[in-house]
Specification:
- It contains 38 helices and 20 strands.
- With about 1200 residues, the chain is of the alpha/beta class.
- The protein folds into five domains: about 220 residues, Rossmann fold (3-Layer(aba) Sandwich); about 220 residues, no CATH class; about 180 residues, P-loop containing nucleotide triphosphate hydrolases (Rossmann fold, 3-Layer(aba) Sandwich); about 90 residues, no CATH class; about 260 residues.
- The strands form three sheets. The chain has a nine-stranded mixed beta sheet, with helices on both faces.
- A hairpin with a 6-residue loop joins β4 and β5.
- The longest helix is centred in the middle third of the chain and has 79 residues.
- About 40% of the residues are buried.
Length: about 1200
């Protein structure tokens, strides 16, 4: 039907192809030809994408009705594989573009899993329902860390007409799934979401309708447009929620609509190819444009360049003419000044006339004695005229000239203090010569002559000033000209830079015009984008919840309830499982030690030995055994814990549940069966968590009253994966704040229904510090405390100290991984830490569980998974791991129903037996054997004292004197025992060496952390602001390095603890041996370590100077250039020195703390050993003195030795 699709004519595209060819764009040309070939072939390609272990290959094999592809719970597809109906064969396309070669289907596995040498595989097999036009395409896992796999998957999708996105039931809402599904949705190809392994769903844990709503809501939040949501199970084809048949029918209906879908798909892909071609053309200039932008100082500066260039050229021209202009300006100003100077006012002209009269030959004064009178009058007239003239010149010329010259020199920054004296020296002298030089003796004295004379005198004075000013200004003008030359030289350099920037701006503008022109040319050659009319694509019938599902499917159990025995508080509980007989055996051993202690307590000389045995007996009698569970949120820890407990106690969900430390232990005191103590965070602790999450998401206002208003509009789109747990925490906190704020800092006692809410509801659990559930069952009644921890990949896993404390102090560690679940980043960091500290454990207390082993289709497949897990553990330094593959679901079903066959087949009993042996025998034997050694030492002392009591009188007297010498000598030895300067230096050196190796390891591994932080799956178009995500990647790199440093520092505390223990043990045993060698009757033994050692309080590490990632944004350019070019390597080289220095400073910051703490611990434990040996010495000497002085001791010591020997033989 023509109305089914809005056609974009892609039948020829000759002009587009010609243009691509003219541009030498071979890649785009090939893609267009591929699409045209595909359209001409009339084949509809249905691509299956998804998580590597979501079951794509298995689903394809099931659809094909035979095993065509390798499948399994570990990665199998490394190539794009296209499957068609036909005679069995396969064509293998090498990566080096050599001609394809044909192989048999039996050989296919080799090529499908080899993504390095082969780029794609085409397979034909008898699949009639595909017909001649249906193609199924398998792609590598979208979460693969192999960048080649990413490229293969993305490049293949342009040939896909419909995409089926396959997800594991437990990982639907993972970041990878949401991000990739969003990119598929943006592409525009018809998209169907498939949730595989729906047989894992448990209605009693979560109604299917709720699960479906959560899935739909998650994809809606990410604005993923899809045509249908389908649930499948390949394990249980009869499962009531299995829509496999609907899926198969859907594919058939799609194939029938192939013509319209092909038209639409090819149109979408052609547009994508063209858009990518335009983008790649832009990307090809990106490096040059970045350089040009940097060269021209940014786009804003480019707008100002021409104006600056014009101004600079004008400035240079002005500077060239400026010295002459200043010379002329100075001359003009002087001339104007002199012209305006009135040197001969009327009064002075009258005086000048009188002076001229006196100079006439006929001038006489008086009638008598005229000679002297005349000469005197002439002098007076001359002096008067000269004096008035000098005053007039000073006021009319000299002062103004001085001001003029000073101002000019200062204006041009030429004035110096010495110029004042120079001015004084060069100012013209107005003397009698000035007025005499213009005299004309023979001239007739008239008014005209007087005026001419005055004019001549004035002009002569002005001429002098001109001459003298020139003398003063000439050097200054020369200096000014030199200054102008220097400025010109500088501006010529700036002009060259501006011209270069202008050339860069011109080139940049030219590139932009080229890019715009190419984009426009491509758009003009493209046909309109096709479109499908609404309702054209087939839909899948919505899933209908089944009320009676639990009765229909054997795998689904009834809702959890407490057993009658549990309801009675544990009375008459059936005994079995992991804890069988543990409490009884420990109680028996404790009773034997108590009896031995009571025997020793009757003898004052055995007081310290009695106390030691009483302490060990109390520990055995208490019988607490901590079993800590670790693993990612979806690994099945809670389900595993339920199997251990034998009942549905912890809530189980495909989404994260355990958000706080969750302990399950036996009821005691006020805490009844089925009650829980919920310890809420303090307000300060919660606000600290709030601030950390605000900071991680670059939000402000965590300390404000209206902090929730900041969170309400927040969406998960564009948030870096490392920030998603913080996003979830903030959303949950905002939701639950009204109910929780009044409870902060308190402890609540709740029933089991409320307990489940606090465990599973994040809006409640985010306010919880810890939970203790008091539950009576076989496991807890045997003294075993089960600790369920938050997932290793959860928000709360940032508290590395909490994890470390459980790792160190728990009696057993169980790491749970899911059957087909890859190790997450949190898993790998936890396992790396476990590998670091394992050597400090007295026993190998680590157990590794592969849960949901019932998903294995064969023993070979299960062995493959075991080997996969083992190799991952070994790469973390755990060389000989104890691995157990089991099904906690089947184990719990077997226990609840009393089905021994199902329980045994689950594989759980093997683990339980091992755990029972470890908890009931292997671990307690450490304490029991130490107690037996204490009893042996006490027996040997009694035997020695018995020998003393049997000596004759002479020997006794001599022996008493010897004891005085022994007391003095040994006391001196003990007094100097704690002088440990050498040992202090040894600890200091050990600390420095350990921290040096920490820095070396971190710096060595920095590259792998960098690769993981800056990964193509995170930095790609269409997932938000690349600049923000880029900076988030950098900050996550820093956070990862700091977390790794913290893990290393915690491990270092264990290594230092072992070092101090070794020093204390060596020193104390050496001293005890030296003391015992002094006299054969002395049998002193050092204390055996029984208490837990403290660890220093470590703050989370920080970088003093974090990298400014925004300032390094220019190094990113574009995803393609960054990852396929050398952009990522350049960035690594740029930040590596800063990161290494930051790690070095952060680790060295802890060095003084470590040295102080462990030197102090050394002193404490050396003093304890000294005091213990001192007490034993006093007891021994008093006992020996008593034996030598009293005959009553003979039978007493002999009897004690015999009794102790019996205890040695009967203690377990």
């Amino acid at each position: 039907m023509a109305a089914q699709v809005h056609r974009g004519d892609v039948s020829d595209l000759k002009e587009l192809k010609d243009q691509l060819k003219a541009w030498d764009d071979e890649k785009s040309l090939k893609l267009i030809n591929d699409l045209l070939y595909k359209k001409a072939s009339g084949e509809l390609t249905i691509a299956l994408c998804g998580h590597f272990s979501a079951g794509k290959s298995s689903l394809i094999n099931t659809l094909c009705g035979t095993k065509v592809l390798p499948s399994g719970p570990v990665p199998t597809s490394a190539n794009v594989v296209s499957i068609r109906n036909g005679q069995p064969r396969a064509l293998i396309y090498p990566a080096d573009m050599k001609p394809p070669r044909e192989v048999s289907l039996d050989e296919l596995e080799i090529y499908c899993t080899n993504g390095g040498d082969y780029q794609s595989v085409n397979v034909w097999a008898p699949i009639p329902w595909l017909g001649d036009s249906g193609v199924l395409m398998d792609t590598p896992g979208v979460d693969s860390t192999d960048e080649g796999h990413h490229k293969a998957t993305h490049s293949a999708l342009h040939l896909a007409d419909v995409v089926l996105y396959v997800m594991d039931y437990n990982h639907v809402q993972s970041e990878n799934n949401l991000v990739f599904a969003k990119s598929l949705s943006d592409w525009g190809k018809p998209l169907y979401l498939i949730v595989n392994q729906i047989d894992k769903h448990r209605d009693q844990e979560l109604p299917i309708s709720v699960y479906q709503q959560e899935v739909e809501a998650a994809f809606s939040r990410w604005q993923v447009t899809y045509e249908g949501l389908i649930f499948t199970s390949l394990k249980d084809m009869e499962h009531p929620y299995n829509q496999y048949e609907d899926l198969k029918e859907l594919i058939g209906r799609l194939i029938k609509k192939k013509d319209a879908l092909l038209e639409y798909s090819v149109s979408c892909s052609v547009h994508h190819v063209v858009e990518d071609a335009a983008q790649e053309f832009r990307d090809s200039h990106e490096s040059e444009k970045e350089s040009l932008l940097e060269e021209m100082g940014g786009e804003q500066r480019a707008l100002k360049l021409q104006a600056e260039l014009t101004l600079m050229e004008a400035s240079l021209n002005q500077l060239a003419a400026l010295p002459q202009q200043e010379r002329e300006a100075l001359r003009e100003e002087l001339n104007m000044l002199l012209e305006n100077a009135n040197l001969m006012p009327a009064e002075l002209r009258d005086v000048a006339q009188q002076y001229l009269e006196s100079r006439k030959p006929s001038f006489k004064k008086g009638l008598w004695f005229t000679g002297n009178k005349t000469a005197l009058e002439q002098d007076q007239r001359q002096n008067r005229f000269l004096h008035m003239l000098q005053e007039q010149v000073a006021s009319q010329v000299e002062w103004h000239v001085r001001v003029m010259l000073t101002s000019w020199a200062e204006k041009h920054q030429l004035w110096k203090d010495t110029h004042l004296q120079i001015l004084d020296d060069i100012m013209p002298i107005i003397d009698s010569e000035v007025i005499e030089n213009s005299l004309q003796i023979d001239a007739v004295l008239s008014g005209e002559y007087v005026l001419n004379y005055c004019r001549n005198v004035a002009n002569n004075i002005k001429g002098k000033y001109r001459h003298h000013v020139q003398q003063f200004t000439e050097p200054l003008l020369a200096e000014f000209a030199e200054n102008c030359t220097q400025i010109q030289d500088q501006q010529r350099v700036e002009l060259a830079d501006l011209q270069q920037q202008s050339a860069a701006a011109s080139r940049y503008a030219s590139l932009l015009r080229e890019e715009t022109a190419r984009t426009a040319a491509l758009a003009e050659l493209l046909p309109p984008r096709g479109g499908l009319t609404p309702g054209f694509l087939p839909v899948v019938s919505p899933l209908q919840p089944l009320v009676s599902a639990a009765a229909t499917v054997g795998a689904l159990r009834a809702a959890p309830t407490m057993s009658p025995a549990s309801a009675r508080g544990g009375a008459n509980l059936p005994r079995g499982g992991a804890a069988m007989g543990r409490r009884q055996r420990l109680a028996g051993a404790a009773a034997q030690l108590q009896a031995a202690a009571a025997l020793l307590a009757r003898y004052p000389a055995m007081a310290s030995a009695a106390r030691g045995l009483q302490s060990r007996a109390a520990a055995l009698e208490g019988g607490a055994f901590t079993l800590a569970l670790f693993g990612a949120f979806s690994a099945g820890k809670s389900s595993f814990a339920n199997a251990l407990l034998g009942e549905d106690v912890l809530p189980v969900s495909p989404h994260p549940t355990t958000a706080a430390i969750n302990r399950i232990l036996a009821p005691h005191g006020e805490f009844m069966h089925g009650t829980a103590k919920i310890t809420m965070k303090t307000r300060e602790s919660f606000l600290e968590d709030l601030k950390i999450s605000f900071d991680m998401l670059h939000l402000s206002g965590s300390d404000a009253e209206n902090w929730r208003e900041v969170i309400l509009p927040l969406t998960s789109e564009g948030i870096h994966p490392a920030g998603l747990p913080h996003y979830g925490f903030l959303k949950a906190a905002a939701t639950g704040w009204e109910d929780a704020q009044g409870l902060l800092g308190t402890a609540q006692i709740v029933d089991i229904s409320q307990y489940r809410l606090y465990v599973a509801d994040e809006s409640k659990s985010c306010f919880v510090e810890s939970i203790d559930l008091f539950y009576s069952c076989d496991l807890t009644e045997q003294g075993i405390v089960l600790v369920d921890t938050p997932g290793a990949d959860s928000l709360h896993a940032r508290h590395t100290g909490v994890t470390f404390q459980y790792m160190k102090h728990a009696d057993a560690l169980v790491f749970v991984t899911y059957y087909n679940h890859a190790f997450s980043k949190g898993d790998r960091q936890f396992l790396a830490q476990l590998g670091r500290v394992k050597d400090s454990f007295a026993l190998d207390k680590m157990f590794f569980i592969i849960n949901a082993a019932d998903l294995a289709s064969s023993d070979d497949e299960l062995d493959q998974v075991k080997q996969h897990v083992k190799s991952n553990l070994q790469s973390s330094g755990i060389r000989s791991p104890h691995i157990y593959a089991l099904s906690s679901m089947n184990a719990l079903n077997g226990k609840v129903r009393g089905d021994d066959e199902q329980l045994i087949s689950s594989g759980f009993t093997s683990f339980e037996q091992t755990l029972a042996d470890f908890a009931g025998k292997e671990l307690p034997n450490l304490s029991i054997q130490a107690a037996k050694q204490d009893i042996t030492a006490a027996r040997k002392r009694a035997e020695e004292w018995d020998k003393l009591s049997r000596q004759d009188e002479v020997s006794r007297s001599g022996r008493l004197l010897q004891l005085l010498e022994i007391r003095s000598k040994v006391s001196d030895m003990l007094r100097t025992f704690t002088n440990t300067e050498d040992q202090h230096r040894e600890i200091e050196q050990e600390t420095k060496e350990l921290l040096f190796h920490v820095r070396q390891r971190l710096q060595y591994n920095l590259g792998s952390f960098f690769q993981e932080a800056f990964h193509p799956s995170l930095l790609k178009e269409g997932i938000g602001s690349l600049k923000e995500i880029y900076a988030d990647c950098g900050r996550e790199l820093e956070n990862s390095l700091l977390r790794e440093l913290d893990q290393e520092l915690w491990a270092t505390t264990l290594r230092l603890e072992l070092k101090v223990k070794a020093i204390v043990q060596e020193a104390s045993y050496k001293l005890a041996l030296q003391i015992n060698d002094i006299d054969e009757s002395l049998v002193l033994t050092p204390l055996k370590e029984t208490k837990e050692w403290p660890v220093p309080e470590l703050e989370d590490s920080k970088f003093e100077n974090p990298v400014n990632w925004n300032a390094l944004w220019s190094m990113f350019k574009a995803p393609k250039l960054f990852f396929e070019g050398n952009g990522r390597e350049k960035l690594k080289l740029a930040v590596e020195p800063t990161l290494k220095e930051g790690l070095s400073i952060a680790s060295l910051h802890q060095q003084p703390l470590f040295i102080f703490f462990y030197v102090n611990q050394l002193q404490i434990y050396l003093h304890q050993q000294r005091d213990a040996l001192q007490e034993q010495l006093e007891e021994s000497l008093e006992a020996m003195e008593s034996s030598l002085q009293s005959q009553e001791a003979i039978e007493s010591w002999s009897e004690l030795a015999q009794d102790l020997k019996q205890f040695e033989q009967i203690i377990l």
